[in-house]
Amino acid sequence: MKLVVAIIKPFKLDEVRQALTEIGVHGMTVTEVKGYGRQKGHTEIYRGAEYVVNFLPKLRIEIAVASDLADKAVEVITSSARTGQIGDGKIFVTPIDHALRIRTGETDTDAL
Amino acid sequence: MGAHWCRAAKLAAPIGLATIFLSATPAFAETSQISPADTAWMIVATALVLMMTIPGLALFYSGMVRKKNVLATMAQSLAAVTIISILWVAFGYSLVFVGDGPWLGTLDRGFLAGMTMDSVNPAAKTIPESLFMLYQMTFAIITVALVAGSVADRMRFSAYLMFSILWFMFVYVPLAHWVWGGGFLGAAGVIDFAGGLVVHLSAGAGGLVAAKVMGRRLGYGVENLSPFDLSLAVMGTGLLWVGWFGFNGGSALAANSRAVMAIIATHLAACAGALTWGAIEWSTQRKPSVLGMISGAVAGLGTITPASGFVTPWQAVVIGVIAGLVCYWACTWLKRRFNYDDSLDVFGVHGVGGMTGVLLAGVFATASIGGTSGLIEGNPRQLLIQFYGVAVTFAWSAAITYVLLKLVSAFVPLRVSKAHEMEGLDISQHGEALQ
Lengths: 112, 435
What we know:
The complex is a heterodimer of chains A (112) and B (435).
Chain A: E1 2-8, H1 13-22, E2 29-35, E3 42-46, E4 49-53, E5 56-65, H2 67-81, E6 89-95
Antiparallel strand pairs in A: 1-5, 1-6, 2-5, 3-4
Helix pairs in contact in A: 1-2
Chain B: H1 2-31, H2 36-62, H3 70-97, H4 129-147, H5 157-180, H6 184-187, H7 196-214, H8 230-249, H9 257-285, H10 290-304, H11 313-338, H12 346-364, H13 367-370, H14 380-409, H15 418-423, H16 425-430
Helix pairs in contact in B: 2-3, 2-4, 2-8, 3-4, 3-5, 4-5, 4-7, 5-7, 5-14, 7-12, 7-14, 8-9, 8-10, 9-10, 9-11, 10-11, 10-12, 11-12, 12-14
């Protein structure tokens, strides 16, 4: 089992969700986050006072998938979240030791 | 025959009613000249001006502070309404509008003593005195509430309350009497239709001194102090804008064409101010900001205040454009040059706007509108008189504000502690916070 964590542009969420559903990923967790990478921040001006905003709003999505589906998931997230502009985001994949569905007690791949 | 009787009956009814009124009118006129039309309009205008402070100014100001200070900023407007209303009834109204000594009125109407159902104030003979008192109360409230914007994010609530009470007593009350209550500025011929001196310049000058005495916010010029929610400020601006129809239109103290002319001038100046400020930003910073447009609107409104009721509609547009230019300059260049942290630009928008408007009233005043001629109609002396009014108001408000702040600071620190300022005034002053 793999945990796929992707940081994406907020307006790309629906496309990513649809692409993942199509390959059989039926659940995800989305968090509103702020951060910066190569895109850096931007400047805001209030009545002449300039403030540099370093942290830009992004979405962090997390999906847990069986190991054989991980590569495919990464591929569709990449293709659906890409705009080609700086700030498209990043994807991280890590192994999952154990998984459990709280309602039924099912474990590991049965719980995904 | 039947039809004839019918017509006759229709005619008889109005004649009968008219007879009743005609016979009733002379007796009525002996006791009072109160006009129902004027009274109705002034009740509405009073409500509109109160709406300018809560929720208008409360939203306008709190939308521009950081999230941790939103409630504390609203609390300042709310406190001004509650405290000043009581003080106005206790002695403010009487000292401003009763008796026409050059310096101060009398206490004859203290706690409204002697005010009856029929009594009128000589300044507004067609509405009940109680309504005139209530209308003028709302001006005192918003003036005191305006000052707080310059020291947003850092003033201790207890110090604010003490300062507000003293500022009302020693700055607002005398100034309002001098200009409107038969005092020496009014007698000198200073024209100030709805409060360019009494409200805006006095609050602006007080705010400037308060910002200097209190010092800058922690992190000023270093940290990001950007507004929490400008959409609140936009809503506040809308309420101020509409409320201003009562502020300036009501200052005619009657439901007449001068009131309507003042409202037209008010509206056009707000539009011109907003467009001007937005245009300056568009050309110098590549984007017209929403904060810029609402700042321009309020600048236009503050600047037209003393001139409305004296100028024509096209002159109001010119005044609005000048307001946008001058107030933008004051909020950016002037503030940076002298390095004071007037947090919500009380001086830059209201002080400079009020001052500009009072002077422009001296330039544009049109006899056919308000009975006074300005520079353009060949009366340069009016402009000199207006300068005199500006100088006296600025000096009085600035000097007394300084003294009062020093006085208050002898009893309680003006600022909250550094830890509390960082934590936010909502939680440290009021024990509440936005989640």
